[in-house]
Design brief:
GO terms for molecular function: water channel activity. There is one protein chain. The chain is mainly alpha-helical. It contains 12 helices and no strands. The chain has one domain: Up-down Bundle (Glycerol uptake facilitator protein). Helices cover 66% and strands 0% of the residues. The C terminus is likely disordered.
Length: 312
Amino acid sequence: MSRSMFAGLKDDLKAASLEFFGTTLFLLLGLGGIQAAAYSNAETVAAAAQGGGVQAVNPVASIQQLLYIAVSMGLSLLVSVWAFYRVTGGVFNPAVATSLLLVGAIGPVRWALYCIAQLAGGIAASALLLALLPGPLVVSTTPGRHVSDAQAVWIEAFLTAALCLTVLMLAAEKHKATPMAPVSIGLTLFAGHLFGVIYTGAAMNTARAFGPAVISGFDKTHWVYWVGPFIGSLMATAIYSYLKYINYHELNPNQDAENTVLSPPCPITRLTSGTVPTLRSLAAEAGQPGSGSGSDVFSSENEKNRMAVSQV
């Protein structure tokens, strides 16, 4: 068993090395945007204090800055995942890697190597930002004022669950929309930041919290960003497992179909005929696999429908 586990070690090491570069790219761009927002805020406040004729913004991030941060992180993940998803899967997150491990998409060796690479990528990105940009690094995550540790854990858990579930349903689960998964993954991170950045910093990723902490120092609440995302990965895996167990694809069949025959029928025809076709009956009439009758029946029915419409 141990031999089979390490059979693909060479490829796992290659993938992990590229996962390191991808994570570094993602967090360099994303955290760089957060640093830019903080630096801009500090510069504005300083200029206003010196009578520079500009309006000072709240030292606590304004709505514009929160939106800037959310866009920065969301777009950074979108771009990075799209660049690497055919190479390593574009995971960049130990919580996502854990979900992929639990559903069997990756093996335990690759999971361990990915987690190490992602944490190292977080450190590398933070160190690069400290070297490249002026001023201290101010991209660490801490719970906001009046946010308890328990609240922070569950906020991180739910936000991470949303991200992991998006990855499982759109990337791990193969279908026609899979090539567009990076867009949805980036948008999910964007939405998560809109909700959580003011409360927890919206890490949703232990590597994102760990890297800046190594460079700038650990806060006493740093454990939140290990426990919360881990719970989130378990939640997402449980939901995905349930969906697979109930054969979710049968609940709304042919959603990915390109056959226009499966589109809803003409509303006027439906009203005049007094019938209400379902997606399942449409699939049967269209001759989809496992549905029974052929497309000739549906073609003749369409002809009847067109004649009925012409008489209305």
